[in-house]
Structures are given as C-alpha cells and as structure tokens.
Specification:
single chain, 568 residues, alpha+beta, two-stranded antiparallel ribbon, 18 helices, 38% helix, 17% strand, globular
Length: 568
C-alpha cells in the first residue's frame, strides 16, 4: 500500500511497498496465476505535483488531504440541463469529501487513506464493503504492535466501497432506482478506545448543522430501544445526548434489527444511532423513520462498539470504540438538493460522454414504470459500472472466471449489454468512459491516474471479447423470447440459459435481467444443476487425463491407513 497518514497531533507516517504491473496481473490471471497487488496512492512527491483542494497544517508543514479535479468554486465542464454547471454548485462531491476529512482532522483524527476496494490480501472479502473493514484487527484486538494501525486512536477517511457479490450485493438493483450503487464512497470516522458517545454525537451534529448548514428541523435521530431477549436495556445515554440537540419527538427508539450492530455471529458489537433527513420538511415525519420512505433517508450511522459476543452471550469490552459511516453520494445529493444520487455533479460528465454514443437520446432521469424504454436505467447502470470497474482495476483486481474476478466480468458485460442493446451504442463505447472516471476522481484518488493505461487496456480487451458474442446472444435471446411468447410460455429453460452462459458468455444474472425485461423468468435451479453437471464432467476429464485412461480408484480412510502402515 502506498499512502500517507496525517495526524493533527503532528507527524507523517509513510507506508510504501512495491507493486506489480497491472498488465502483468491481467495476463497472469488469464493463465490462472494469482498475483498479489496493493496500491492506494502515488508517492507523496507525486501527490504534491498535482493541484490540491485541501491542506492541513501539521507541525508547520502543509500536508495535502484530498486533491480535486476542480476547485471549490467548481470551475469545470458544463453539465446536462437537469443539473446546473459545476461552477454553480456550492457543495461539489470534491468539496463535500474534503470538508468532512478536514473537519475531523481538526478534531485530532488521523487521516488514514482508504484501503483498496478490492482487498486482495483478505480472502474473507470479495470487496471492501464498509469503511471499518481495514480496522477490523483493532476491533478484534489482533493488531500487530509494529503496525501503523496500532498507533491509531482516532481516524477518518473516505473509503472506496463496492457492494456486488457476497453478503452485500446491490448489483441487481443498480440502474433500477436512484440510490443503489455497486461502487460508492463511505465517509467514516473512528475512535479506538478514545472518545465515545457524547463526542461522536456532538461531532456529527456540529458538522451537519454548523459546517454543511443542513436545516436542523429536518433531522431525526434514532437510538437502540433495548431488547429483553439480549438482556439489554434501552440506550438511554445516547438518547440523552441527542436531546441536547433535538426535541423529544424527533429522538426515536428503534429495535435491534435497525439499531444494534454486529460484525458477525461472534465478535465486537453494540448499539447504534442513526441520523435521518426529511427531504420535504415542515412536517412531523417521525412515523416514517426506518420505514423505507424515499423522502426520509438515513444519512449517518454511528455505532457504539461496547460489547463482545461469544458462545456464552454478550460481555462488556474493556475498551469502547466508535465506528461511523455516511454515504458520500447520498450526502452530496442532499446538499445539492437532488432527489437522485445520479443527479449530483460527479455523474454528469459520465452521462455527457455516454450521450455521445447513445442513439436513443440523452439521460432524462426516468425511473421504474416511467422508464418504458429502459434508457435511463441503462444510463445509471453504465455510469455506476464504469466507476466500479475503474476503481477495482486500479486497486489490482482483474476480470476472470473466479470469485472477485468473475463479479467484475459480470459488471462489465452487464454494462456492455445495456449500452449496445438499450442505448444502441457501438461496440467499444464503454472503454471511452474510463478517462472520464479518471478525470472526475483522479484528484482524490491518484491511483486512477497512475493505472489509467492498465485499466483502459483491460477494459478494451474484455469489452472487445464480449462484443463479439453479444450480438449473437441478443439475437438468440430475442428469437427465444418470440418463440416462448408464441407458445404462451414464460420460462427460459435451464438448457437455454446454460447455452447462453457456456457458449455465448452471458452470466446467469444477465440472462435473468433480460428475461425480467421481457416479462419472462429463468429456471435458475435447473441452470445450477446444468452448471454442476458440467463441473463434474470437467473433474472427471481431469482425473482421466491424470490416470492415463486407467480406472480411477477411490479408497476409504481404513484402506489409506493400511497402505500407510505398509509404507506403500
């Protein structure tokens, strides 16, 4: 990892490691060779050569926090008619991000750079899906005393996150609404055995109300209402701290499902407190808190890690921790007075570039049943996927047919299909979005700039390979759709879905998506059986090759033990 840790208490800690060429990683992956890689930033001197949007004085030395591709005043390219030009937006994404980090650095937090969104050294995670992932060892008490993490007492950053695949998977929802993303940034703060509930609540209120100037009359806070089955009383302490800022009717007790956080079946855990924002205002919206109302949205989650769960139940931790997270895109939409995350400034350059390729018109923001042609769904999905792939590839992940790599391949093929079938874009359109992502986010994340050529080469190769099969696959599915509807049938059979997967390279979720768009369903269980049968045929073929065609013997434990006793 390459990065800088900056503390307002003074001092700069640098962590440098060598990295492999991205192209080497991609080629190695193609030959089923796993290559380790970790990167998060340029060297400090490379960072200092670029324009800075924020610096903090550390021991008399101005140290950069985040670099912006535009200044705070926002001089930049014009955007679509639905969004004002960047220079008219007070709270650009760059400014929202840097203001958050600056605020907490001034509160004696160490700026600890975002970890990779593709954690190649953590086999338990497909992708980094929360800001606390890189600090897991601190919460578990497993930090190497020689590690820079062991010195942290307070930290802050904007963490690159991807939620696609695994337990946290938003891929299927991306494009269909205005707030789901596969890639997003999580603004986070942490206290490791330092301050606790009072300071965390006061800091959150001060930043939102006094710095971002959010109307306090639109804010609601939740606290843990207690749970007799867990033997836990209501978190009256957090409630009282909130009552210093909010009236009683806007401080709301909620159950364990919403307001008790756990890392897993065992490990550190504790009650949490959420801040919600009412987009409408001038009303009592307390009944809508945690009711999935699109106009009353959660913006910040503050977790009070004070317990440990083991096989015997809950016990109090010797040290209490704070873990907070706030989605950057959602906060920016609130500050820019946008009802959709996709209407914020960071997405407009991508939409403009995509409109150059679209033969069905520009983005108009339609959602759900209103988006009858799926044009706007395609715009949102493609823009999101361009961000996710750019960041993941910059951090060393590569598309392939296993695990994390296959998720990335699915994302790219999903975007390519949306562009060529729905937007009628020509093959190769998707790769042209990569430089736009780099231009938009490269100031804050210089690894995008450094790895741009590698990212572009991989995306071009993958897009070209799939485009060759895409037309055949679309034609096959269109013919199949006509055939099924002509017979008044609604199910894509397992063998057809497997043919699309095995012969034409269509991931099953892409086939499911196309089927849903056509009002059809897929025999998913049958597809899984077909897939397992193919895997078994492959295993049998490998075993036969190893044995030279001889009959394969399978021995039980007693037989192998006898052979061992005989020294055979």
């Amino acid at each position: 990892m390459r990065g800088v840790t900056v503390s307002a208490r003074g001092g700069v800690v640098m962590m440098l490691t060598g990295v492999l060429s991205g192209r080497t990683r991609y080629l190695a992956s193609a030959f089923s060779t796993r290559a380790g890689f970790s990167s998060s930033a340029f060297l400090v001197q490379q960072q200092q050569q670029q324009a800075m949007s924020r610096r903090v004085d550390v021991g008399g030395v101005p140290v950069p926090l985040f670099m912006s591709s535009t200044s705070d005043s926002g001089s930049g390219s014009s955007t679509s008619s639905s969004t004002p030009p960047v220079e008219d937006i007070e709270w650009t994404v760059d400014k929202v991000r840097s203001t958050f980090v600056d605020f907490f650095v001034e509160k004696d937090h160490t700026y600890h750079p975002s970890s990779a969104c593709a954690p190649l050294n953590d086999p338990t995670l497909l992708f980094t899906n929360a800001g606390m992932n890189q600090f897991k060892s601190i919460f578990l008490g497993q930090t190497d005393p020689n590690s820079p993490l062991s010195k942290l007492t307070r930290a802050t950053n904007s963490q690159k996150c991807i939620r696609a695949g695994g337990k946290h998977n938003d891929l299927d929802d991306v494009g269909r609404d205005t707030y789901h993303h596969t890639f997003f940034e999580m603004l986070g703060t942490w206290s490791f055995g330092d301050y606790f509930k009072k300071e965390a609540i006061d800091y959150a209120w001060e930043l939102l109300v006094n710095v971002y100037h959010i109307d306090p009359n639109r804010l609601y806070a939740t606290y843990f209402e207690g749970d007799p089955s867990l033997g836990l009383e209501p978190d009256e302490e957090a409630r009282q701290f909130w009552l210093k800022h909010l009236p009683e009717e806007r401080v709301i007790g909620c159950n364990a499902q919403d307001n008790f956080w756990e890392m897993g079946d065992t490990g550190p855990c504790g009650p949490c407190s959420e801040l919600h924002y009412d987009r409408i205002g001038n009303r009592d919206a307390s009944a809508l808190v945690n009711a999935d109302d699109p106009n009353l949205i959660e913006i910040w989650n503050i977790v009070f890690i004070q317990y440990n769960r083991d096989e015997t139940g809950l016990s109090t931790l010797p040290a209490q921790h704070i873990d907070t997270g706030m989605g950057l895109e959602r906060l920016a939409s609130l500050l820019q007075n946008k009802s959709s995350n996709y209407d914020i400034d960071a997405f407009q350059p991508l939409f403009q570039k995509l409109a150059e390729h679209s033969k069905v018109g520009p983005y108009t923001g339609l959602v759900g049943a209103d988006d009858t042609t799926l044009k706007d769904t395609a715009y949102r999905a493609i823009a999101d996927h361009a961000r996710a792939l750019s960041f993941a590839l910059a951090d060393g992940a590569v598309p392939n047919n296993e695990g994390r790599g296959y998720v990335l391949r699915r994302i790219l093929r999903r975007a390519t299909r949306y562009g060529q079938q729905i937007l009628k874009a020509d093959p190769g359109f998707f790769a042209t979005l990569i430089p736009v992502v780099v231009d938009t986010f490269g100031g804050a994340y210089p690894e995008l700039v450094k790895q741009q050529d590698v990212i572009l080469e991989i995306v071009e190769d993958e897009e070209k390979a799939f485009s060759v099969m895409l037309d055949r696959g679309i034609k096959f599915f269109t013919d199949l759709e006509g055939e099924l509807k002509g017979k008044q049938q609604t199910t894509v059979t397992a063998d057809k879905a497997f043919f699309l997967y095995d012969t034409l390279g269509f991931p099953i979720d892409l086939t499911v998506l196309m089927a849903e768009e056509a009002g059809l369903e897929v025999d998913h269980a049958g597809f899984e059986r077909e897939l397992e049968a193919q895997k078994q045929r492959s295993r049998d073929a490998r075993n036969a090759a190893r044995s030279g065609g001889a009959q394969r013997l399978e021995l039980i434990a007693e037989q192998t033990a006898w052979l061992a006793d005989q020294a055979i």
